[in-house]
């Protein structure tokens, strides 16, 4: 028994009243009615124990109705014209940047549209650009006002115009929905500090530290080095507030339906500015329950699914992207009715793992096991983000291929901080936890892949290898099913920027090493193939164009990972009907030779990257870090029998 029985007629009448001067009630009410049973079931699971549940439900639907009315005709038209699979197309290619570091301000971003088009981008994630505290703001993830752009960057009206301008150029705007917390300067927090109980209830506040201490027994620390513990004392009101991240980021209290409703309002406001993808920041942490680790609780899932239903009712052109950097089993649970797309941190970390070890069996094994996600969803495949790299592969996957996950993480941390003899990487430690010995890694793609060291040494062979490593990773995220996402600057081989160490507000946060300002010199070199920037940019631009012209690379077509073929090669097949493309990349510094006869039927394949033709009988020889995208020239069977393949290859 849920909640909703009997409430619909009353709610319907109330909503009609709201729409009385607006002709569009039918579309809204139809969308709501279609989703009403599930929506009220979810909200009942969160707030059903309250005597005023029906009233809360009505308030939430009222917020949605007002946002629907406020939505512009241009965006209503977008809602109507969107194909549900728009984000799965091979044409989708993403870029991410900080507005200030990359282009100064929103006008600067607008001026870069021709560059985004030159590269082939159709998805642009602008890192948090909202009003935030001046000095410490966690790269913008401490939001003081979801409806105000930081004045140095522009205005909300400019942002809405930019969204529309980007769309006119085929680019979807992606913004963060930082909904787990606000900054301690947000108006809600200021009111809570003034003692207003209704705003104190927007946060998780405690009169003393007795309960916080009980919670702490099961919590991890996200930033153990800079922000140990999960609670902060607020002297003005003599209370403790929950702060999972930094002490100036106050966790919101979704057990309070008024907060849910307030955040819904902020979210719909952003959707109505023309944002097409909302990146749900820190999604695992939305609900807390004593005695648990307060991550990935069922209520966190209910919150996101309910919000997604409400977005589908008001602004269906908008989709959610999950940011869940947790165990791979848990990540998968956010994909589907909750979020249409999700970061793929597992592929990301395993690409780096494979590069460091020179072995691909953990990557292949994990991908065979975990790459498939529901239809109508997509991974966002990336090499690195603005955040650190934490080795979030599953220990059980490691054990299945004979690796000790814990020891392997120590090796990887040592490798990427250059402590392993022969390591090519120039990374920095992030978030070292002396209690657990745990740590993560910071660094740009180029610096982690060896370019920084190679340039310092002046060794042309090492330089060549570094470029190949970068391109192999880029080629994989461009061809494995999903939306490839590039951190802008990586396309030019931008190295680590150590200047953050002189900035008192950043020196404790090594993630700033891989958030460099745009480098105009590299940009100017991008068409010169004798430069490193030109080599990377040129090759990437070509690969992007190839991806976009082959629908087989869309996320709506299957990706089949082929395990047990070769221990040093990343290998998967894209299939569309009887067409196949085999993507193979050698992740070792030695030449490898593969026999693809066991699953290629065609007499010939053609490498799309070099246009070289390969005969079926000839072994495929891959130079160090070389990659091929082999298109079979004839028809293949509709699918590959992987059992037969693994038997053949192990036999
Ligand atoms: C996410 C962001 C990260 C931020 C954290 C807290 O993980 O990606 O940069 O520090 O959330 O908002």
UniProtKB/TrEMBL annotation:
One example of a Gene Ontology biological process annotation: carbohydrate metabolic process
Record domain Glycosyl hydrolase family 13 catalytic: where: 98-526
Molecular function (Gene Ontology), one example: amylosucrase activity
InterPro entries to which the protein is assigned, alphabetical: Amylosucrase, GH, GH13_cat_dom, Glyco_hydro_b, Malt_amylase-like_C, O16G_dom_2
Pfam families linked to this entry: Alpha-amylase (PF00128), Malt_amylase_C (PF16657)
Domain of life: Bacteria
Full protein name: Amylosucrase
Organism: Dictyobacter kobayashii
